[in-house]
């Protein structure tokens, strides 16, 4: 029984050793120097937290052109006192000042201390090219001598060598690759050397020559981590510099005001963090394996997709080559036909000229005809011959080749095509669209307009995403509504919720994929359903001065003779005409909203609502002029205005004139057409591009808004005991344009309710 338990224990131990050995073998790539690609030998920790062998670091500095005294980049600065032949024997016996003494010297700014070079106003900054991060790191004034050795990494390398049975022969740690077998070791230098390296690093006549050689070994390491500046054991950690420091480093000016903690605290904190992170990774091995499988699948898809892309490009280039070959054949055929035609014409001309030679052709025939003595026969034959001779004579006198020899008209201009072929490149995704905020707005529907930046690759279609920002918060990421494959550069979003704020964005797509989203645009929807109506000029007075557009959405008032006469009677009394136009729809319930734009050059315009019966009663058949002492709201003269009226007024108007809005001290100040508030009780605000009117029939309230920002301008009470309709009044010249419903634009419609939600 005991033997079985012993065997089971032995098997468990062997399995553990096998797992440890496998783990050590798998981490070999973490123990390779990025320069020599061999296991680290006396690794140094660079300021960027990467490691490099000490010999490799010296070699890299030598390649950069830095050569220290004696060819050693890590040696001390050059000075007569620092050379072995002139160094004072007392210098080696000189003791370092006490910390309190050193602190006083540092604060006073006098004296010298280890690490400070007398007269060094601009210390040399040594840059080291890190082979791991491919960046230059600053080593400081002391170069490699100011770097810490990574003793932990050395121990890990030694354990790894022992686990995989590497290193039967100990190699020299300072040889250039390939290193020779070590023959000596130095306890003082803590390194192994071959014969040549030992002589090189222990020159005769120096203190190093007094080092006693030992047998080569890999166990040369200091008992603790020593400060490279003061050769004392490090006891603290500077969080600001992220560097281990000794007692003397703490009192240096370079660490003044820094956060310094004991090394035990830093050890415990870093160990806890590393343990926590490692525990998390070990506890999620299934996730790691799943991600590895996903990456491997991505690699396979990448290989297949890359091969397909190569085939597609090859096919397209072959297609271009085939088109060029076909075009070349057709062009060469055209040149050949032109050449044959010219040669034929030139050959015929040559034959004609040869017939003019003496004794041949036409000349010989003419000579024979001249020998004819029969006059009638001669006339008959010579008439046709004379025409031919005349033509030949004219051709001889005005000689010109029948065809030119130049083929300049067959030259090709391939500059544009060559430029296109030179610029031929892979298709890029479209850039982020730019939403046109001047044309994008929300009314009965949301009209969204955008454009691509200049020089952007084309987009085949677009994707629109939007969501309500004031919707109830839900767990998880914000849920977007999406519409795919929107053609063109504008779209309508139907059925938006009233009184909401929507955020919208657009991105383009082509064969290369989807581009970046545009910047988010926030739009406010009207506070109530939009009321659609037209202007009706049948009610009111002086209809001949009102010009209503054909679509009945715009009206302009043209000032007549009464306004000119009022200018002459300015000091005695002012009588102005009132032109009124109403909407053709009356509201009897619910909430309604509409918007309009007032011409900033209008003299005086009142925009609002009123009871239909009161409006018809007040303006149907009323006189052409009104007096400043007459208020049509009360039906009395101005003396009755001092009485307090509890009932809501039948009218509610906003007064606009000369690009300004007059806001009274209360709602009643704008309830009528001619309310008179003192200057101290009124103020003016700039006229916005569009005005919005929101009518709440049940509450008997009317709100006037800035239709662009939906900022409230004025809220008035209104008598809603009967049908209420929109009204517009003009005193002098003015113009009003109703905002056209978005649904009448011939744009692509996108139903909001039909969007699929996107997480």
From TrEMBL:
Give its localization: Cytoplasm, Cytoskeleton
SMART domains in UniProt: BBOX, RING
Domain COS per the UniProt entry, residue ranges: 370-427
Q: Which UniProt keywords apply?
A: Coiled coil, Cytoplasm, Cytoskeleton, Metal-binding, Repeat, Zinc, Zinc-finger
Q: Can you cite an annotated GO cellular component? A: main axon
* Compositionally biased spans, kind Basic and acidic residues: 630-639
Q: Which GO terms describe its biological process?
A: anterograde synaptic vesicle transport; axonogenesis; microtubule bundle formation; neuron migration
Q: Where is the composition biased (Low complexity)?
A: 73-89
Task: Provide any one GO MF term from the record.
Answer: zinc ion binding
User: Which family, according to the similarity comment?
Assistant: Belongs to the TRIM/RBCC family.
Any idea what this protein is called?
Tripartite motif-containing protein 46
The species this protein was found in: Neomonachus schauinslandi (Hawaiian monk seal)
């Amino acid at each position: 029984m005991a033997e079985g338990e012993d065997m089971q224990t032995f098997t468990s131990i062997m399995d553990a050793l096998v797992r440890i050995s496998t783990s050590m073998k798998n981490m070999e790539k973490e123990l390779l120097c990025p320069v020599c690609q061999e296991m680290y030998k006396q690794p140094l920790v660079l300021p960027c937290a990467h490691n490099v062998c000490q010999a490799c670091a010296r070699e890299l500095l030598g390649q950069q052109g830095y050569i220290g005294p004696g060819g050693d980049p890590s040696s001390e600065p050059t000075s007569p006192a620092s050379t072995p032949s002139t160094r004072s024997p007392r210098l080696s016996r000189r003791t370092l000042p006490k910390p309190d003494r050193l602190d006083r010297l540092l604060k006073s700014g006098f004296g010298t201390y280890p690490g400070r070079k007398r007269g060094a106003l601009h210390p040399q900054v040594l840059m080291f090219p890190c082979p791991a991060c491919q960046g230059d790191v600053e080593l400081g004034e002391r170069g490699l001598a100011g770097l810490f050795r990574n003793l932990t990494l050395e121990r890990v390398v030694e354990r790894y060598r022992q686990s995989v049975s590497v290193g039967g022969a100990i190699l020299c740690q300072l040889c250039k690759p390939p290193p020779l077998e070590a023959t000596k070791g130095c306890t003082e230098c803590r390194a192994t050397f071959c014969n040549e390296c030992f002589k090189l690093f222990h020159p005769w006549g120096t203190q190093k020559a007094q080092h006693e050689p030992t047998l080569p070994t890999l166990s040369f390491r200091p008992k603790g981590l020593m400060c490279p500046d003061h050769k004392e054991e490090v006891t603290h950690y500077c969080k600001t510099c992220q560097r281990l420091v000794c007692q003397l480093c703490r009192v240096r000016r370079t660490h003044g005001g820094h956060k310094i903690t004991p090394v035990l605290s830093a050890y415990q904190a870093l160990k806890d963090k590393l343990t926590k992170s490692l525990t998390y990774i070990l506890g999620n091995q299934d996730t790691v394996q799943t991600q590895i499988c996903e990456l491997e699948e991505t690699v396979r898809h990448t290989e297949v997709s890359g091969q397909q892309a190569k085939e597609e490009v090859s096919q397209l280039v072959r297609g271009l080559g085939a088109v060029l070959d076909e075009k070349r054949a057709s062009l060469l055929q055209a040149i050949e036909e032109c050449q044959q035609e010219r040669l034929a014409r030139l050959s015929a001309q040559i034959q004609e000229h040869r017939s003019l030679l003496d004794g041949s052709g036409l000349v010989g025939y003419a000579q024979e005809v001249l020998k004819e003595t029969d006059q009638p026969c001669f006339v008959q034959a010579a008439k046709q011959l004379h025409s031919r001779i005349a033509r030949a004579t004219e051709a001889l006198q005005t000689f010109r080749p029948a065809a030119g020899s130049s083929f300049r008209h067959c030259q090709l201009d391939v500059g544009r095509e060559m430029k296109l072929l030179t610029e031929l490149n892979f298709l890029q995704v479209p850039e982020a669209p730019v939403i046109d905020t001047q044309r994008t707005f929300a009314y009965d529907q949301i009209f969204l307009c955008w454009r691509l930046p200049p020089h952007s690759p084309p987009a085949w279609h677009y994707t629109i995403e939007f969501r309500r920002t004031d919707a109830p918060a839900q767990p998880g990421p914000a849920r977007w509504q999406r519409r795919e494959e929107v053609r063109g550069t504008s779209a309508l979003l139907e059925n938006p919720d009233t009184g909401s704020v929507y955020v919208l964005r657009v991105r383009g797509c082509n064969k290369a994929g989807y581009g970046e989203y545009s910047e988010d645009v926030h739009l406010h929807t009207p506070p109530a359903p939009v009321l659609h109506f037209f202007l009706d000029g049948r009610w009111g007075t002086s209809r001949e001065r009102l010009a209503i557009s054909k679509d009945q959405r715009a009206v302009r008032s043209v000032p007549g003779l009464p306004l000119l006469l009022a200018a002459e009677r300015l000091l005695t009394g002012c009588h102005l005409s009132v032109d009124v136009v109403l909407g053709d729809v009356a509201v009897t319930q619910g909430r309604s909203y509409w918007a309009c734009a007032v011409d900033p050059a209008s003299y005086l315009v009142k925009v609002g609502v009123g009871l239909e019966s009161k409006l018809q009663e007040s303006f149907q058949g009323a006189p052409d002029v009104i007096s400043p002492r007459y208020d049509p709201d009360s039906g009395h003269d101005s003396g009755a205005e001092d009485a307090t009226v509890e009932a809501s007024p039948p009218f509610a108007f906003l007064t606009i004139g000369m690009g300004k809005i007059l806001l009274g001290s209360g709602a009643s100040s704008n309830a009528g057409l001619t309310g008179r508030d003192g200057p101290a009780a009124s103020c003016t605000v700039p006229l916005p591009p569009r005005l919005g009117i929101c009518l709440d029939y049940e509450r008997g309230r009317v709100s006037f808004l800035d239709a662009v920002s939906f900022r409230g301008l004025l809220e008035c009470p209104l008598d809603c005991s009967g049908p209420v309709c929109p009204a517009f009044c003009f005193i002098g010249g003015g113009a009003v344009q109703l905002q056209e419903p978005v649904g009448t634009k011939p744009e692509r419609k996108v139903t909001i309710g039909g969007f699929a939600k996107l997480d």
